[in-house]
Predict the 3D structure of the following.
Amino acid sequence: MGDNSQVAIFVPLSIMMVVATLNGFIQEASAAGECGKTPISLAFASLSDCLGAGRDPKAKVPPACCSEVSKLIQIDPRCLCSVLLSPAAKEAQIMPAAAISIPKRCNIKNAGNECGSE
């Protein structure tokens, strides 16, 4: 009988742990971050036209890149910074200094320097 009582306690405890974990994931997924409800990885994917400009500070920035950068800045200026300094950007060999200079190279007004001195 001792084994049955342990199982009876373990099953509800396991279910509560799973529910708590799922609740945390759901809250994180629905929370608004720097890019609103758009995940950083998806925001990074939207900047595919910016890869060359993000790797070379002297590269010409394509108009499609400038358009996407403007959209991210409108969401929240910190969104662009988060995207350009994200693990995905690092994996894509984006140079932070080159990437952060893209708004200026696009002549985007009021872009500021939300990424600080990084």
